[in-house]
Amino acid sequence: MGKKAREPQYIPSALNTPMLNYRVYYMSAAEKLLTFLLAAVVGGGVGLIFYGGQFKDEDGLATTATYIGNIVIFLVVGVIVGSVFLSVRSRKLRDKRKTQITHQFRELLSALAASLSSGMNMQESLESACNDLTLEYSEDAYIVQEVKEMLNGIKNNVPLEETIAFFGERSEIDDIKSFGIVFSMCYRTGGNLKDIVRRTNNIISEKIEISEEIETTISSNKSQFNVMIVFPVVLVLMLRYMSSSFAASFSTVPGIIAITVAIVIFAVAYFTAQSIMDIKG
């Protein structure tokens, strides 16, 4: 079987406009380099704390092999951690962007509801919302680009419901996709758009408020979790420099095995805790 094709960062619209694919996040070369270097340095340093100082002589003094071993450990562990963290960081940035577009979409619905209530039609409401969102965010904001594409679609005879559905598909956000489906059903049949927009806005607002309440509730747990991540590293570092006999045990086969098992358990606990505290919108 062939290698799975990489999902594109931009998807052409019905007007052949490259629109952002929110399902993926590809870091720039500068972002990748900076992320990799920072993660590699931190990871390599932690690797030295746990595995460094091997091959010392009988008096406990570092040898040439010790320095070479430290360099190898730093580079190997650093490259592994840097490579793993690239995907983790990319996923975090993607989720952050999806959170931003969700909040911005709520503001779009709020602006549309106000305009529709004042008697404007859908195109006029979108134009008014586009102006408001540009002032609230910026010309380059995600939602401003999406609204502009909707307006360009209307001017070029592309059905508005098709543009909104395309937005929902690219965003992979259930609320936007659901809105696109309901909007498509009602827009051409003369449904109550004002009520649909208002209800969707209320639902998204409630979900965001609940997520923020949960985030506030578990914020102290996250702080404790972050401390627990650093604590084992600090503890091992202190024991290494406070007790030469304890430091020497790290160079034995049982010591290396024990450290490796502990790191594996720690990594499993870390990713398990992350999944538990991950709040889905």
Low-confidence stretches: none
Q: Report the radius of gyration as a whole number of Å.
A: 26 Å
Strand tally: 2
Question: Oligomeric state of the chains?
Answer: single chain
Please report the distance between the alpha carbons of the first and last residues: 35 Å
Q: Compute the average pLDDT.
A: 86
What overall geometry do the principal axes of the alpha carbons give? elongated
Content-based structural category: mainly alpha
Arrangement of strands in the largest sheet:
1-2
Any overview of this molecule?
The protein has 281 residues and is an all-alpha fold. The chain is built from ten helices and two strands. The protein has a two-stranded antiparallel sheet with strand order 1-2. The model has no long low-confidence stretch (mean pLDDT 86).
What would you say about this model in short?
75% of the residues lie in helices and 2% in strands. It is mostly helical and 281 residues long. Helix 1 (29-51) packs across helix 2 (64-117) and helix 2 crosses helix 3.
